[in-house]
Automatic annotation (TrEMBL):
<keyword id="KW-0805">Transcription regulation</keyword>
<protein>
    <submittedName>
        <fullName>AraC family transcriptional regulator</fullName>
    </submittedName>
</protein>
<keyword id="KW-0614">Plasmid</keyword>
<dbReference type="InterPro" id="IPR050204">
    <property type="entry name" value="AraC_XylS_family_regulators"/>
</dbReference>
<feature type="domain" description="HTH araC/xylS-type">
    <location>
        <begin position="171"/>
        <end position="269"/>
    </location>
</feature>
<dbReference type="Pfam" id="PF12833">
    <property type="entry name" value="HTH_18"/>
</dbReference>
<dbReference type="Pfam" id="PF22200">
    <property type="entry name" value="ExsA_N"/>
</dbReference>
<keyword id="KW-0238">DNA-binding</keyword>
<keyword id="KW-0804">Transcription</keyword>
<dbReference type="InterPro" id="IPR054015">
    <property type="entry name" value="ExsA-like_N"/>
</dbReference>
<dbReference type="InterPro" id="IPR009057">
    <property type="entry name" value="Homeodomain-like_sf"/>
</dbReference>
<dbReference type="InterPro" id="IPR018060">
    <property type="entry name" value="HTH_AraC"/>
</dbReference>
């Protein structure tokens, strides 16, 4: 079992499995440090690896696939994250006369590993991992303000990222969904990221694709899985997470129902044909 606990807006997490894959969509910015093990993040922008000691600022409203691995000496992945909520950032901006920022155009993940002040900041949070009740709401608020202050001293990119308060604008839904169907997030999250209410998202989706989002997503994911199994020689255990299914048995059942054979049967068939 994983050990995960959230004290106010500060998350402590430790994994115990050798390999874990998950999808991530954060409505708030997250500042984190990898204490042990590794986390590999994959997005449309590319990949980013957090190893022991890596400090990273992750932009809100981004979609990531995350793969957690044990470290080189077998240590389980563990990290601390501080979520910088929009309400807190608005309050900070008002109190400190932060001017309105341009739209942030930089990377979704900023590597801040070499910042000794942020390293010291995270060191100060370590004792609360063993005694979380000491992390009161007031201390969490002070620590969050400290994190913002330190980020403000880092570079202009951090300021623009933190205080760009614009919500996702209405995107071309067809292009957006074809780029992001592999992410296993809720329809409400897809709707927000596409700049729509859930009802508008469903209505627009049906107009464009002539089917429901649920049916389209499953079919699109299965077609991508078929391609990866038959043309890219990937294993079913690799593919089901890659295309956005939650578990292997549901993936296998849906795949057979659509294509008439299981993912394993297709893989065997593809291999025998290629030899």
């Amino acid at each position: 079992m994983d050990t995960v606990f959230l004290q106010h807006n500060i998350l402590y997490a430790q994994g115990h499995q050798k390999l874990q894959s998950s999808e991530h969509y954060f409505p708030d910015h997250a500042l984190g440090i990898m204490l042990s093990g590794e986390s590999h993040y994959f997005s449309n922008e590319g990949s980013f690896v957090m190893r022991e000691g890596t400090i990273c600022l992750m932009r809100r409203n981004e979609l990531f696939k995350k793969l957690k691995k044990v470290g080189p000496n077998g240590e389980s992945p563990s990290l601390i994250s501080v979520f910088l909520e929009q309400k807190t950032l608005h309050q900070y901006a008002t109190e400190n006369n932060i001017p309105k920022q341009n739209t942030y155009r930089g990377k979704a993940m900023l590597d801040l590993t070499n910042n000794l002040f942020l390293k010291g900041f995270f060191d100060s949070l370590l004792p609360y991992r063993d005694d979380p009740k000491k992390l009161s709401a007031k201390i969490a608020e002070l620590k969050t303000y400290e994190a913002i202050e330190l980020l403000m001293q880092t570079n202009n990119s951090c300021q623009t990222l933190l205080f760009d308060f614009q919500e996702p604008h209405k995107l071309d839904l067809e292009t957006y969904m074809n780029h992001n169907f592999k992410y296993n997030i809720s329809l409400a999250s897809f709707a927000k990221l596409a700049g729509r209410s859930l009802s508008t998202f469903k209505r627009d989706f049906t107009k464009i694709f002539n089917t429901t989002p649920e049916k389209w997503l499953q079919q699109k994911r299965l077609e991508q899985a078929h391609y990866l199994l038959s043309q890219r020689d990937m294993r079913p255990s690799e593919v089901y997470l890659e295309v956005g299914f939650e578990n292997l048995s549901h993936f296998s059942f849906a795949f057979k129902k659509t294509f008439g054979l299981t993912p394993t049967e297709l893989t065997d068939q593809a291999r025998s044909t290629s030899h």
